Amino acid sequence: MNKAVQPKTKRKHLIGIVISDKSSKTRKVQIEQTFMHKLYKKQIRKKKNILVHDEKEQARAGDKVAVIESRPISKLKKWQLVKIVEKAK
């Protein structure tokens, strides 16, 4: 009966595109969500910019990255870089 121990909280996972890599160890990532309007049944795109902690400074502008929610690292940084999904061309 060896069950893997699950953490009590589930962290959010998001995928977005790096739009700025000018700060050291910080990347600005744009997250895009699409959803259907309840009444008019139209596809709506919602964009949000978040600050992500990149310890190794490996992500560059245009890269598609996976991020995970974490404890607050600074006033506005509450996300960490998990991996680079796709490099910019």
Task: Write up this protein.
With 89 residues, the chain is mainly β. It has a single domain, classed as Nucleic acid-binding proteins (OB fold (Dihydrolipoamide Acetyltransferase, E2P), Beta Barrel), CATH 2.40.50. It is built from no helices and five strands. The protein has a five-stranded mixed β-barrel. A hairpin with a 5-residue loop joins strand 1 and strand 2. It is globular and about 45 Å long. 12% of the residues are buried.
> What is the domain total for the residues?
1
**Mean model confidence by pLDDT:** 92
Task: Sketch the major β-sheet.
Answer: 5 strands, mixed, barrel
Radius of gyration: 16 Å
How much helix, percentage-wise, in residues? under 10%
CATH third-tier fold name: OB fold (Dihydrolipoamide Acetyltransferase, E2P)
Say which CATH homologous superfamily is assigned. Answer: Nucleic acid-binding proteins
Order of helices and strands: EEEEE
Numbering strands along the chain, what is their spatial order in the largest sheet?
1-2-3-5-4
Strand-residue proportion:
over 45%
Structural class: mainly beta
Which helices and strands appear, and what pairs or packs with what?
Elements: E1 13-20, E2 26-36, E3 43-53, E4 64-69, E5 77-86
Parallel strand pairs: 3-5
Antiparallel strand pairs: 1-2, 1-4, 2-3, 4-5
Keywords:
89 residues; globular; OB fold (Dihydrolipoamide Acetyltransferase, E2P); five-stranded mixed β-barrel
TL;DR?
The protein is mainly beta and 89 residues long. 0% of the residues lie in helices and 52% in strands. The protein has a single domain (13-86), classed as OB fold (Dihydrolipoamide Acetyltransferase, E2P) (Beta Barrel), CATH 2.40.50.
